[in-house]
Amino acid sequence: GENVEQHPSTLSVQEGDSAVIKCTYSDSASNYFPWYKQELGKRPQLIIDIRSNVGEKKDQRIAVTLNKTAKHFSLHITETQPEDSAVYFCAASSDQKLVFGQGTRLTINP
Amino acid sequence: DAGITQSPRHKVTETGTPVTLRCHQTENHRYMYWYRQDPGHGLRLIHYSYGVKDTDKGEVSDGYSVSRSKTEDFLLTLESATSSQTSVYFCAISESGMQTQYFGPGTRLLVL
User: Fold this and answer.
1) Which of A5, A10, A38, A90 is most buried by a 10 A CB count?
2) Residue A105 contacts by C-beta under 8 Å, 6 or more apart in sequence?
3) Among B106, B75, B59, which residue's Cα sits nearest to residue A95?
4) Element (H, E) at A34
5) pLDDT at residue B99 above 70?
6) Phi, then psi, of B47 in degrees rounded to 5
7) What average pLDDT does the structure give for chain A?
8) In the predicted model, is pLDDT for residue B81 greater than 70?
9) DSSP 8-state code for residue B82
């Protein structure tokens, strides 16, 4: 089955700097890759997603890139703000299910 | 937030007792999922449903059963709760198996 590895597990950046979170997946048949943001005590919420026929997608300060050959995808957050502090999860869709990475706790320092 | 509710939102129970968690949706989505979330493990799939009475196991299904008798409701049952089942349980819904999943607010379960 699918296996998703996410790095780093914690990330601390200065406000205004960029943050990058990386994930690798194992199943070459996976074709949908969402990213979720989870604030403390809240539910995970989708922030951006990408399908395997697209190499990059951008939405304001966040972007996701996908390298199908290497089977990895990344989340990029630019001009980070305090409200970006949260846990971020990547996922890969395989056989009607999502398999999640272990999560990255992002802290934005003022 | 999508129309998803979970009940109860918090529960404390004792080892060996049965527990049922309910997920209710008003979106008429075909797929429903149950996950558990534990520190260091992210979200792990317990069971999912792809239609009324159609269910399948996820990666951590041992000790759990599910039922879906109506499109809008998906029940997760712990037949005999154990302390290792202390966790936060999230329900999610999606229109299809390869579409965005929307999560419910979660249920915090403590098994003493």
Assistant:
1) A90
2) A9, A10, A11, A86, A87
3) B59
4) strand A32-38
5) yes
6) -150, 160
7) 95
8) yes
9) -
Closest CA to B91 of B79, B77, B80, B101: B101
Tokens coding A18: 């960029």
Neighbour-count burial for A51-70, b at 16+ CB within 10 Å, e otherwise:
ebeeeeeeeeebbbbbeeee
- Count of C-beta atoms within a 10 Å radius of residue B112: 10
Q: Is the dihedral of CA A105, B1, B2, B5 positive or negative?
A: positive
| B42–A97 C-beta distance less than 8 A | no
Whole-angstrom distance, CA of residue A94 vs CA of residue A79: 33
Residues from chain B contacting residue A44 (CB–CB below 8 Å):
43, 90, 103
Among residues B90, B27, B10, the alpha carbon closest in space to that of A45 is found at: B90
Taking CA–CA distances from B57, the nearest residue in chain A reads A97
What is the spatial distance between Cα A45 and Cα B36, in angstroms, rounded to a whole number?
16
Q: Spell out the residues 6+ positions from residue B54 whose beta carbon is closer than 8 angstroms to its own.
A: B68
Residues in chain A closer than 8 A to B31 (CB atoms): 96
Q: What are the tokens at B64?
A: 């759990």
Q: Using only C-alpha atoms, what is the Rg of chain A? A: 13
